[in-house]
Design a protein that fits this description.
The chain is an alpha+beta fold. About 40% of the residues lie in helices and about 10% in strands. The protein has a domain at about 1-90. Strands 5-4-3-6 form a four-stranded antiparallel sheet, with no helix packed on it.
Length: about 375
């Protein structure tokens, strides 16, 4: 048997035996857990047999690369060595290839380690609320992380960029012969607007550099300052016009579209099943993810979606995200909500904004 260990720097802070280095402190070495283990491949009628290995220490290891971390034990107790018959286990002579784990890739491990009940506790202190905001403002779908408010991978309004995480997830999935992560419809929308915003930022940089060069880089020159203020006023108008288009399209997508493939990672019929006329089932909790069958919906609930579905997001986080979306729709991108009511009265009614979760339909 060989010693098996993940490097905190290269593999996201996971140690053997399920001991998680949360990367929040400095005593990394104290958190590492070493064990000598054998790897077994479960066979026969064993839940989880296609997605990982049994370890001789009694744990079950999920294959790296399917989401943010390789260690996840709670949902597959049947696959632990002590619960399997000898004929159900085949010893693996060579340990699984170590693959890079996407650091903080889906935040699933953190959500599940905190626990759904704790995230909804009325006794949460400010530190716990800040942590809940951090981990719940992201929405992971089939391994890819999006901002929850707009389902963007790189969002200029939420000021997040998960592009590199998606690349690493897809690299791993390609090695495992899996389809790319996320859902094509969501990825296409995210990529379209990321390209649009990137072009505008590049144009802004080029025009700003050109204006500075006209005055020899003297940004205190009176004429430069006058032109700069006029230029920024024009750009503010352009920004509002772009955001109006973005938010209008995004709002329509959230209300009526969502994923266009089965969001269960192991699905072989992501576009739907012939016997069901290729219809996809929509999750009533979030209204975004879809599945080709009820079985895959249940499997994904255990695998990923339980920790991601809007129905399991703390209500205060849902309210904050919804408020931010309304503010954005009326052109307010500040943290000050004092003028929001007046703006809502003056401008178009956005009462048709879809709730983050439809309480009438359940989860």
């Amino acid at each position: 048997m060989e010693e098996y260990r993940y490097s905190e720097y290269d593999y996201g802070g996971w140690g053997l035996g399920g001991k998680y280095n949360n990367k929040m402190g400095c005593n990394y070495e104290e958190d590492w857990h070493f064990q000598q283990v054998e790897f077994y491949r479960p066979d026969g009628d064993v839940e989880g047999k296609d997605i990982g290995w049994c370890l001789s220490n009694g744990f079950f290891m999920i294959r790296p690369g399917l989401w943010s971390g390789p260690w996840y034990f709670e949902d597959f107790p049947e696959a632990r060595k002590e619960n399997c018959s000898e004929e159900d286990l085949e010893i693996v002579q060579q340990e699984p290839a170590v693959q890079r784990v996407v650091e903080n890739g889906t935040n699933k491990s953190l959500k599940m380690s905190i626990g759904i009940k704790k995230l909804h506790s009325s006794e949460m202190n400010s530190e716990m609320k800040d942590m809940a905001r951090t981990i719940c403002n992201a929405f992971v779908i089939n391994g890819v992380q999006y901002c929850r408010a707009h389902l963007m991978i790189c969002c200029h309004l939420c000021e997040v960029n998960y592009d590199s995480l998606r690349d690493e997830v897809n690299d791993e999935r390609a090695r495992l012969l899996l389809r790319p992560g996320g859902a094509p419809s969501i990825n296409e929308m995210a990529d379209k607007w990321q390209e649009c915003i990137s072009e505008q930022l590049l144009l802004l940089q080029l025009e700003t550099d050109d204006l500075r060069s006209q005055y020899g880089g003297d940004t205190d020159h009176p004429e430069y300052l006058a032109k700069w203020h006029e230029y920024m006023k024009a750009k503010k108008f352009d920004e509002r016009e772009i955001n109006n288009r973005f938010l209008s399209e995004n709002n329509e997508f959230l209300k009526n579209k969502g994923a266009n493939q089965c969001c269960y990672w192991a699905c072989k019929t992501p576009n739907g099943r012939e016997e069901q006329e290729f219809q996809l089932r929509k999750c009533t909790g979030c209204g975004i993810v879809k599945y080709c069958c009820k079985e895959h919906q249940k499997l994904d609930w255990k695998w990923e979606h339980r920790g991601e579905c809007t129905s399991n997001i703390p209500e205060f986080v849902q309210k904050e995200i919804t408020m931010d979306r309304i503010k954005n729709l009326v052109g307010d991108y500040s943290e000050n909500t004092g003028s929001l009511r007046q703006k809502l009265e003056e401008e178009e009614d956005y009462s048709d904004l879809p709730p983050l979760v439809d309480r009438d339909t359940g989860s």
